[in-house]
Amino acid sequence: MRTKYFEGMTSHTQQEKVFKIQHFAYKMRNLYTENPELFNEVVQYIPYIVHTNRKDNLDIIYANEKLLQKGPELEKLVELGGSYLPEISCNTLLKSAVEKAKIFAKINDGHAVCNYIQYLQVNKVKKYVYSSKLLLDENLYFNLSVFTEEMGMIDKMFNSVFGAIHQNPIKWQQFQSLTKMEKKLIKLFADGHSNNELAEMLFISPHTVQTHRRNIYSKLSISKAAELIKISLVLEIL
């Protein structure tokens, strides 16, 4: 019975890896609520960090051994609670994650998932952590996380692309200023669609599409399609 919780854990494209983690988070959340005994058996073998925390102050209620074994800072986080997060986090990304969690809590949808990135100090070294957050009950979140260094090419992409954005206040503000339409177009541009194709798909003029393209390149300080593809993956994760 345990084996079904490990189905599909083979090599995929970068986006598929992200979707796989999100789907696995659903499975583990449901197992946690429906069969705690089996959950406690399975959680020992999965390659992810799992924890539950409170909605109001982010204090950790449950954490699997993989979290506790990562480093003394994370042990201290479990002990001291959410108030310790600013001491080991990138404040920019922590603020972004907290705001996303607040919005997510208001939505109150048990089928929704909130994805976010943190930059945590572990064994005195800052590392990116990707997390999928789901609602557990009216008071708690269920979280499944993985260090991006364990995600192959995604880690290199984050350090080369996202690292340069979030650690530069001006670039971060520009990144945050992307509109919903611009974020949607980034993915479509990255998929290789032309201006005319997008104009037809979105019922706008080719000139409007080109204006959006220029604005996106300007906000992100990029000039090549290859850079846009990498940022598209960042947006998928965020």
TrEMBL record:
Q: Does the keyword tRNA processing apply?
A: no
The record places domain HTH luxR-type at: 171-236
Would I find Oxidoreductase among this entry's keywords? no
Q: Which terms in the Gene Ontology molecular function aspect does this entry carry?
A: DNA binding
Q: Per the UniProt entry, what is one GO biological process?
A: regulation of DNA-templated transcription
**What keywords appear on the UniProt entry?**
DNA-binding, Transcription, Transcription regulation
Domain of life where this protein originates: Bacteria
Q: Name one Pfam family in it.
A: GerE
PANTHER family listed in its UniProt record: DNA-BINDING TRANSCRIPTIONAL ACTIVATOR DEVR_DOSR
- What is this protein identified as? Response regulator containing a CheY-like receiver domain and an HTH DNA-binding domain
What species is this protein from?
Aequorivita sublithincola (strain DSM 14238 / LMG 21431 / ACAM 643 / 9-3)
Upper lineage: Bacteria, Pseudomonadati, Bacteroidota, Flavobacteriia, Flavobacteriales
